[in-house]
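Researcher: Next sequence.
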Amino acid sequence: MNNRPYYCYLDNFDEITIIVPMKNYRDNNHYVLIGGDEEIELVIREKISLGTEVKIICSFDAYIHLERLYHVENEEGASSELYTGKIVRTELFDNIFRTKKSDLGFTYQKEATKFKIWSPVAKSVKLELLSPDGFCQMIEFPYTSQGVWRKIVEGDLADYKYRYHVYVNGEERVVLDPYAIASDANATYNYIIDKTTTYQMKHPYYFSGDPLDAVIYEVSIRDFTNDPEVTFQHRSQYLGMVEKGVKTKGGFKAGIDYLKELGITHVQIMPFYDFDGVDELHPNKSYNWGYNPVQYNVPEGWFSSDPNDPVKRINECKQMIDEFHEAGIGVIMDVVFNHVYDVQTFPFERLVPGYAYHVDRQGIYTNASGCKNDLATHRKMVRKLILDSVAYWVQEYKVDGFRFDLMGLIDLETMNEVRQELYSYSKHILVYGEGWKMYSSNLADRMAHMYNKNVLYNIGFFNDQFRERIKGKTFDILSPGYSTGNIKEVELVKQMIMGSSHNRFLFKYTSQSINYVECHDNLTFFDKAIAIAGDIALVKKQQLLATAMVILSQGVPFLHAGQECFRSKQGVENSYDSGDEINRFDWSLVDENQESIGFIRSIIALRKAHQVFKLKSTTELNQACDVITLGSGSIMYALNNSTNFLIVFKPTCFTEAISIPEDYKLLLASATVRFVEENSVYELTGTGTTIFEK
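Model: Next structure:
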């Protein structure tokens, strides 16, 4: 606060709060609101002592034009500008100033460009326009309606830089366009782009299946191509992800060729919208996973060969996705709409202070995300930004799905509208997220967490119960799960194999269950298991068992990059800024573990080839699926459809004799298997998965 005699805030359409420092307070002062040629009487309703200040709550009977400048004056001649307060969080404000039109940002044509920006409470908006040869203009915008400021600027503005100067709450501040699609390095200016001149995608990915047909592989652009022992030409960049013909030191396939051979259907790429936490001009100066949103519709410059070239950023990102599509692999975008990196610099806060975030009763930002702010996605213009953003990435970049970070902080209506919006483009765009229940208050009732699954039936959730039961407790490193030798919860493990939906255990449909034991968060499976067992040979068998359970259980399988070849992060539990040494994909593991990778490749192919691994409803499960616990703690998983399978998941090391019907033959095994003909049994030795086919 500055040295004004008092501070006043518009908290509702008929309420103003005045905060008077005690040194300036006079009990008999009265106040009027002045704007233009109008003088409005303020009626004092309540006075509250705050110790060093007095809070005065006033009512008035007049219509306030939020885009105009008002002052509150007292009879002594003291005056203070009226700031926007809690009014922006009222339902009436949200309803009045919602705009439904889809052309916020800029609309480029060769003859002229239309600019639109939303701020119902700004008093002035100016466009700073910078030509390619450095000529700068400042252009005043008129206010139109529904909070929108609009201006058409004549001439061909392709490749011009722009940003806004907006006067709100007593200060003119520089603001980036929340609907920007292009940027220079480190987000100082946005760019006007002729989208018709950018890379034109040739291979839209027509994933024609149900979510259950997907096999998802999570990967980071930086990590996947950063190994100095492998000769990626575009190391740690968009185009490195799709370089063909790259080999490991041992001569095996690397990069996109490796993924194609592995057989996955989708890559889930960790954030590649514009984020903070790195220096785009000095890419090796710092490291970050990217869960720090800055510009939702701009490709991240850290992954570009030239982050200061806005078109190159767009082209390289599009080409990456296009070449994944050519290889028959869909691209799922990891999006973070639950918080932003910096509250104060995010455009919405500068355009409409206090609107975009949840606050507590004291007006302090909530912190359920752990990132010092939580986006209020139920507010109509925040929701619109989310809907418009996912639509843009689908339309312009042909993205095949979205993984929502901390989806439990996003409201039900928004997520359902996202799902319906995406259906209008394709029935096969995947939508899933982290469905943790993040709020303990009644706010939780309206959020998109897994306990609200009945009204989110066509959206998937990461199944943390699967992870905890199969891998072991995430936040107790030495606590084992089923695959690491703990058979005490075998009855719950059976439910996991049934997609956590049998008898509606956790989900109604198996397609809601994203089955996983490892992702970018927390310890890798190898690091947790080695802490428990200390035996690398055993840990590898345990990890193959866990990965096979992910792939062959009912539900949607999800693999973390390197899970199939025993990736380690050297015991670092949260490596979001730990650098390349910890995070990079070590391609020597592919050389060392070809047999194990071959097993995973085979069971991925098996799943993809047989519908019996992709049962959806309880009825289908009851008809075609049976899960039996053996006395040893092993599980026999029987699948009966057009092709019949018996699968034995064995978590223990000792030899176990299992009778298998004569018409079943051994198909695949990661355990040691011996057929004892005189007893007509198979002896299974060691931890692993054994698959028999009829």
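Model: The chain has a mean pLDDT of 96. DSSP finds 15 helices and 34 strands in the chain.
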